[in-house]
């Protein structure tokens, strides 16, 4: 007999549905529905009380109308009335209506809650079931407030029926998910754990779901569930398939429950040895069963079996502790990679992604690379291909990066549009991360733009610029390659952007070749100009003015272009402004000033790859970060970020890159850190509990070494904790900010970082700090400040030991704190003869070191020749030295010419100037930084500091405020400075002609000795 | 957790729509349409999983679906569910429908919408899997049926003339 008797329908409902189905047009359907809605409305409002059956019929009709996609804004009250009926069927339809058409009217909710309360108290299991269903289906906060206290009682009461228990468990789970704060933990938790032993497998399944969710937030409270879950699992796995009768699904014993139990176990670390042995047996049995011949040909059989198998593999990967099992898991997944079932191939690729991050199995995963690449090429299903891309990304390391990137690039040509952008990001990241040879990187990115230019986001091309700027070994190659790529008749606008930028900066490196002479470069770029959008044109205009500086021979050509009506009278304000300003700049400024203004870009500060950030944003925090972190752990920064040049070494720190330089060049300023206060708590440096201190964390030596010349960065990172540092040093004092980041979602308890100095270090190095808050919330970061005083020279470094409780386990981490002697070095001034006298004294054999090393990058004779030919000092040493001196001069001037030197401003000024000559967006950035008001202010109250500021600012003033303002500012400047008179030592003319050597020279200690120009013309 | 269960026919006409996460009505309609278009363009013998559409959480969610004759059964789930497990669950649901209606067809879903909801309620509750044992579910439905009969509605007098 069918469980649903088809005859017992409601006639009116059937007629209505048939009518709708017979409607010939959408309009007819809407008309019929409106008629019915009006009918129901009038029935509901009518005087005659409706009987239960009619109400039920109308409610059903409303549900049907709703399903067709029409809004229902009435009928809730009638549905609520049905709840208080004693008839099961009426109550049932009432609850159904409420769960499907949830309404947040508070009066209604009160009535609904009342009805639910009555049903829960009715002791009628059917009614209780309906009420619990309703709570779970709606799951609103109001319901949680009303029932979160009640449901645990029902769940653990001895006399509750199994079916009600089942519903109560899930209902509680739903409320906990929606409003965890409203579900109080209490005595009931231990009794819930014991439901895992229940006779009724349905109850066990529901309880397992509940415990899994609760244990994620309260692992301590539910940890006894581990052994119970293992024994339950073991009983299921070893049972003959007939033992569990109804819960056997196509010859697989209780697959659903097995999956749930394996999920629960993934909330915990591997259990203690006794339980672990049993669990390992279970997992082995599951893996063994996968090899047995199937008991049924039906797909359901293999589905259920594999559902359990995949979950077991997830657990093995999660525990990541049994190399044996991991390798078996990997082999199993390898088999699935070639399975004829698409679903299994899909899941195998997905699981392997996580497996790739385990160090035990990373190599094993890599052996499947050909299969995965093949999947990318041959799979018919985009879902599967997407997973193949993910896996290739996850398994990529230095050994196979070139192959994987090449395959991804070739796949990109035919890839589905929906996943192109993601692939582009992945290729860009891999190419950067594993580039040994940066020419390969440049080729890859240019290819990327060629193949999928539309999907190359701003971040990608920004990044390639950053890298080329920061790595001078690739600049010549980049210029050459981009020049060649631009020859293509149709090239993507992104390529024009990259090309415009790179040629503007490094076009001189290839200008020696007659095939890419300045004029040819310019013509090539300008031939693309008219096809480009406004931002790109703006960028190209900047390139042109850079060309004026780099190649005086094309100056007139460029001026002609700038002067043409299409530029000077361009409808776009930005373009017009640039054209006007650049034209003016090129005609009024001397070569020296041009050279200063348009000097090569300084290296970008080290920072997280913007592309990675974008990918993370795209994929949501969970997936990528885990993978990234795992990868980072595995291969500690193959390339790391490009090495920063000295000027930006401390860029990550506030105030700015130049802060350190200030300390170097000028007379030592007062230490910024307050002197160690006497009351400051001395954190246990004597540490008699040395035995409790963990040995140094692996890899910390490498990190330590990186900090020798660096003050900021990540010192240590594992799955739980990240330690970051920011530090600054002045003379013999220093201050270090230590940031402890909790990467988990669980609190760290008893969090105690301790600084430990070895005995002999204690006398030489004085560390003072305050203890930090002992609890660190999930995802939170706490900061600790350490004041450092160097008393005498020392060799050892202090050790930072961190102890805390995470979940149930005690964690102990030790890392060397990078406080090294060189941090306290001070520059000193001496005359050349003194210097050489001292130098000659260093003649002992131990005082000399010589080392010969192989060049890291190929020495390209062509590029070298080109450089020599041009006589341009783009050699890094000279280049950065030049910049250093210039910075120092400016800053020194600012610092010494005003009583309270706003050094911060000075620093900002410098760093902004550096950034100014950049892309359109940067220009806009600068505009916000230097509003008109600044200049106005300078004009009204002029003082020397601002003169320097303005002089340095001039390029940006002219670029942002329009030619007129700039010009008048300059005039004003000249009158002001002349009125100051020569006594102040200001060389006004020098200022205005932009000879940097003419910067203020004032008597006093540490004054600049030379007046000779330090900035040579770069042409 | 299961966010939504959608059943629609080959033309995208919804036959059963159940959301376990609150969405405004018009978004619900959009989700049904979007899901239909995502699923429709897929061949029958490729895999049963795909990333959720833009409206229902994007790549954090998966659509797991099966196609039976004229109907698509689509479950939208988050990462806490086993993909193959959900695929089994769809099968359990459909087999149960088949047992309850004896050779279920699309028309049964149309004319007995309420019953379909009740059967679904025995399988999934508030987005969580309640029962996977088919016999148990059928037993529950039979019990409901008996209750209904015993309440002896006037409607039992009108036999459907469909």
Automatic annotation (TrEMBL), chain A:
What GO biological process, any one, is recorded here?
intracellular protein transport
Name the residue ranges with Low complexity bias.
646-667
Membrane topology for this entry? Answer: Peripheral membrane protein
Q: Which GO terms describe its cellular component?
A: AP-2 adaptor complex
Domain Clathrin adaptor alpha/beta/gamma-adaptin appendage Ig-like subdomain: start-end pairs: 705-818
Q: Which GO terms describe its molecular function?
A: clathrin adaptor activity; protein kinase binding
Q: Where does a 1,2-diacyl-sn-glycero-3-phospho-(1D-myo-inositol-3,4,5-trisphosphate) bind?
A: 11-12, 43, 53, 57-61
InterPro entries for the chain: Adaptor_Complx_Large_Subunit, AP2_complex_asu, ARM-like, ARM-type_fold, Clathrin/coatomer_adapt-like_N, Clathrin_a-adaptin_app_sub_C, Clathrin_a/b/g-adaptin_app_Ig, Clathrin_app_Ig-like_sf
Tell me the SMART domains matching this sequence: Alpha_adaptinC2
User: Which domain of life does the protein's organism represent?
Assistant: Eukaryota
Composition bias, kind Pro residues: at what positions?
668-677
Keyword vocabulary terms for this entry: Coated pit, Endocytosis, Membrane, Protein transport, Transport
| Polar residues biased stretches | 1009-1019
From the UniProt entry, list the residue stretches annotated as the region Disordered: 615-679, 997-1019
Locations listed in the record: Membrane, Coated pit
Assembly and oligomerization? Adaptor protein complex 2 (AP-2) is a heterotetramer composed of two large adaptins (alpha-type subunit AP2A1 or AP2A2 and beta-type subunit AP2B1), a medium adaptin (mu-type subunit AP2M1) and a small adaptin (sigma-type subunit AP2S1).
Which family is it part of? Belongs to the adaptor complexes large subunit family.
Function field: Component of the adaptor protein complex 2 (AP-2). Adaptor protein complexes function in protein transport via transport vesicles in different membrane traffic pathways. Adaptor protein complexes are vesicle coat components and appear to be involved in cargo selection and vesicle formation. AP-2 is involved in clathrin-dependent endocytosis in which cargo proteins are incorporated into vesicles surrounded by clathrin (clathrin-coated vesicles, CCVs) which are destined for fusion with the early endosome.
Its recorded name reads: AP-2 complex subunit alpha
List the source organism. Heterocephalus glaber
From TrEMBL, chain B:
Query: Could you tell me which residue ranges the AP complex mu/sigma subunit domain spans?
Result: 1-147
Q: Which InterPro entries match?
A: AP_complex_ssu, AP_mu_sigma_su, APS3, Clathrin_sm-chain_CS, Longin-like_dom_sf
UniProt entry keywords in alphabetical sequence: Cytoplasmic vesicle, Golgi apparatus, Membrane, Protein transport, Transport
Q: What is the purpose of this protein?
A: Part of the AP-3 complex, an adaptor-related complex which is not clathrin-associated. The complex is associated with the Golgi region as well as more peripheral structures. It facilitates the budding of vesicles from the Golgi membrane and may be directly involved in trafficking to lysosomes. In concert with the BLOC-1 complex, AP-3 is required to target cargos into vesicles assembled at cell bodies for delivery into neurites and nerve terminals.
Gene3D superfamilies, per the entry:
3.30.450.60
Name of the protein: AP complex subunit sigma
Q: Which SUPFAM superfamilies did the record assign?
A: SNARE-like
Task: Check the record and name the Pfam families matching this protein.
Answer: Clat_adaptor_s
Q: Which domain of life is it from?
A: Eukaryota
Q: How does it assemble?
A: Adaptor protein complex 3 (AP-3) is a heterotetramer composed of two large adaptins (delta-type subunit AP3D1 and beta-type subunit AP3B1 or AP3B2), a medium adaptin (mu-type subunit AP3M1 or AP3M2) and a small adaptin (sigma-type subunit APS1 or AP3S2). AP-3 associates with the BLOC-1 complex. Interacts with AGAP1.
What does the similarity note say?
Belongs to the adaptor complexes small subunit family.
- Membrane association type: Peripheral membrane protein
The subcellular location is:
Cytoplasmic vesicle membrane; Golgi apparatus
Q: What is its main location?
A: membrane
Q: Which GO terms describe its biological process?
A: anterograde synaptic vesicle transport; Golgi to vacuole transport; intracellular protein transport
Assigned GO CC terms = AP-3 adaptor complex; axon cytoplasm; cytoplasmic vesicle membrane; Golgi apparatus
């Amino acid at each position: 007999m069918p469980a649903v008797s088809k005859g017992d329908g409601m006639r009116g409902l059937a007629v209505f549905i048939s009518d709708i189905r017979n409607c010939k047009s959408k309009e007819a359907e809407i008309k019929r529905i409106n008629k019915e809605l009006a009918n129901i409305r009038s029935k509901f409002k009518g005087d005659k009380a409706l009987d239960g059956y009619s109400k039920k019929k109308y409610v059903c009709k409303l549900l049907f109308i709703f399903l067709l996609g029409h809004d229902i804004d009435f009928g809730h009250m009638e549905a609520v009335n049905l709840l208080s009926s004693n008839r099961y069927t009426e109550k049932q339809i009432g609850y159904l209506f409420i769960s499907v058409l949830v309404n947040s009217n508070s009066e209604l909710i009160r009535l609904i809650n009342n009805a639910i309360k009555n049903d829960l108290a009715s002791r009628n299991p059917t009614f209780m079931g309906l009420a619990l269903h309703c709570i779970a289906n709606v799951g609103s906060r109001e319901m949680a407030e009303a029932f979160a206290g009640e449901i645990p009682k029902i769940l653990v009461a001895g006399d509750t029926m199994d079916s009600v228990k089942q519903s109560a468990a899930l209902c509680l789970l739903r409320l906990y998910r929606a409003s965890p704060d409203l579900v109080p933990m209490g005595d009931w938790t231990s009794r819930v754990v014991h439901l895992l032993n229940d006779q009724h497998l349905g109850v066990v399944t529901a309880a397992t779901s509940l415990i899994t969710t609760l244990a994620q937030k309260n692992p301590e409270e539910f940890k006894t569930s581990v052994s119970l879950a293992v024994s339950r699992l073991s009983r299921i796995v070893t049972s003959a398939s007939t033992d569990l009768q109804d819960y056997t699904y196509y010859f697989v014993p209780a697959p659903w429950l097995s999956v749930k139990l394996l999920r629960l176990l993934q909330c915990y670390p591997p259990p203690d040895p006794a339980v672990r042995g049993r669990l390992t047996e279970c997992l082995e049995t599951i893996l063994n069963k996968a090899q047995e011949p199937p008991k049924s040909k039906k797909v359901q059989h293999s589905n259920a079996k594999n559902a359990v198998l995949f979950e077991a593999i997830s657990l093995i990967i999660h525990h990541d502790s049994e190399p044996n099992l991991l390798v078996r898991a990997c082999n199993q997944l390898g088999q699935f990679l070639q399975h004829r079932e698409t679903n299994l191939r899909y899941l195998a690729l997905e699981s392997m992604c996580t497996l790739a991050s385990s160090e035990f199995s990373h190599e094993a995963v890599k052996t499947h690379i050909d299969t995965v690449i093949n999947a990318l090429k041959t799979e018919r299903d985009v879902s599967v291909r997407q997973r193949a891309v993910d896996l290739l990304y996850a398994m990529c390391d230095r050994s196979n990066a070139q192959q994987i990137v090449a395959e991804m690039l070739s796949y990109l040509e035919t890839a589905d549009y929906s996943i192109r952008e993601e692939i582009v990001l992945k290729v860009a990241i891999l190419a950067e991360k594993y580039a040994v040879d940066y020419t390969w990187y440049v080729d890859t990115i240019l290819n990327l733009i060629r193949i999928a230019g539309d999907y190359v986001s701003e971040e990608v091309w920004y990044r390639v610029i950053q890298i080329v700027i920061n790595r001078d070994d690739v600049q010549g190659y980049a210029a050459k390659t981009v020049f060649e790529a631009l020859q293509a008749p149709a090239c993507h606008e992104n390529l024009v952007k990259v090309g415009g930028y790179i040629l503007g900066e490094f076009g001189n490196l290839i200008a020696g070749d007659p095939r890419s002479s300045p004029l040819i470069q310019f013509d090539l770029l300008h031939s693309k100009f008219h096809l480009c959008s406004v931002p790109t044109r703006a960028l190209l205009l900047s390139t042109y003015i850079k060309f004026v500086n780099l190649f005086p021979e094309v100056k007139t050509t460029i001026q002609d272009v700038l002067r043409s009506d299409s530029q000077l009278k361009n409808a776009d304000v930005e373009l017009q402004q640039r054209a006007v300003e650049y034209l003016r700049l090129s005609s009024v400024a001397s070569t020296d000033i041009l050279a200063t203004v348009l000097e090569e870009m300084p290296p970008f500060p080290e920072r997280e790859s913007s592309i990675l950030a974008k990918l993370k944003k795209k994929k949501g925090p969970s997936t990528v970060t885990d993978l990234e972190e795992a990868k980072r752990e595995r291969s500690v920064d193959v390339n790391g970020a490009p090495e920063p040049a000295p000027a930006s070494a401390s860029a990550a720190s506030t105030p700015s890159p130049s802060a350190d330089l200030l300390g170097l060049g000028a007379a030592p300023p007062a230490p910024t850190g307050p002197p160690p206060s006497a009351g400051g708590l001395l954190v246990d440096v004597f540490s008699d509990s040395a035995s409790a201190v963990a040995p140094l964390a692996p890899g910390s030596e490498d990190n330590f070494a990186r900090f020798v010349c660096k003050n900021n960065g990540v010192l240590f990172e594992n799955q739980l904790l990240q330690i970051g540092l920011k530090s600054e040093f002045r003379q013999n004092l220093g201050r270090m900010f230590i940031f402890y980041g909790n990467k988990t979602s669980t609190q760290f308890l008893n969090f105690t970082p301790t600084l430990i100095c070895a005995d002999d270090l204690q006398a030489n190095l004085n560390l003072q700090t305050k203890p930090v808050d002992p609890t660190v919330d999930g995802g939170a970061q706490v900061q600790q400040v350490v004041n450092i005083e160097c008393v005498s020279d020392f060799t050892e470094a202090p050790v930072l030991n961190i102890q805390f409780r995470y979940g149930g386990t005690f964690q102990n981490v030790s890392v060397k704190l990078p406080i090294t002697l060189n941090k306290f070095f001070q520059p000193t001034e001496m005359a050349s003869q003194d210097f050489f006298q001292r130098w000659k004294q260093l003649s002992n054999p131990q005082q000399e070191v010589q080392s010969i090393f192989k060049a890291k990058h190929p020495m390209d004779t062509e590029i070298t020749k080109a450089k020599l030919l041009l006589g341009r000092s783009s050699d890094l040493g000279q280049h950065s030295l030049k910049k250093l001196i210039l910075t120092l001069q400016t800053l020194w001037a600012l610092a010494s010419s005003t009583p309270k030197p706003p050094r911060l401003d000075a620093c900002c000024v410098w760093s902004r100037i550096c950034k100014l000559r950049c892309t359109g967006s940067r220009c806009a950035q600068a505009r916000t930084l230097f509003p008109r008001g600044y200049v106005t202010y300078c004009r009204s109250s002029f003082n020397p500091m601002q003169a320097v500021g303005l002089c340095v600012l001039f390029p940006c003033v002219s670029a942002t405020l329009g030619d007129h303002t700039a010009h008048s500012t300059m005039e004003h400047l000249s009158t002001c400075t002349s009125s100051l008179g020569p006594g102040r030592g200001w060389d006004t003319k020098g200022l205005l002609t932009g000879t940097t050597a003419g910067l203020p020279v004032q008597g006093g200690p540490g004054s600049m000795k030379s007046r000779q120009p330090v900035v040579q013309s770069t042409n | 957790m299961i966010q939504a269960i959608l059943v629609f026919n080959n033309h995208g006409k919804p036959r059963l729509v159940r959301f376990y996460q609150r969405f405004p009505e018009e978004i619900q309609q959009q989700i049904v349409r979007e899901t239909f278009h995502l699923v429709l363009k897929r061949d029958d013998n490729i895999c049963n999983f795909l990333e959720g559409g833009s409206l229902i959480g994007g790549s954090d969610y998966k659509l797991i679906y099966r196609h039976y004759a004229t109907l698509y059964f689509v479950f939208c789930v988050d990462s806490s569910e086993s993909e193959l497990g959900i695929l089994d669950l769809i099968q359990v649901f459909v087999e149960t429908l088949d047992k309850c209606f004896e050779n279920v067809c699309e028309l049964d879903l149309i004319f007995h919408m309420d019953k379909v909801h009740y059967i679904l309620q025995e399988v999934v509750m508030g987005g969580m899997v309640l029962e996977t044992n088919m016999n148990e579910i059928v037993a529950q439905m039979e019990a409901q049926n008996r209750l209904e009969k015993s309440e002896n509605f006037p409607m039992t007098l009108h036999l459907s003339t469909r």
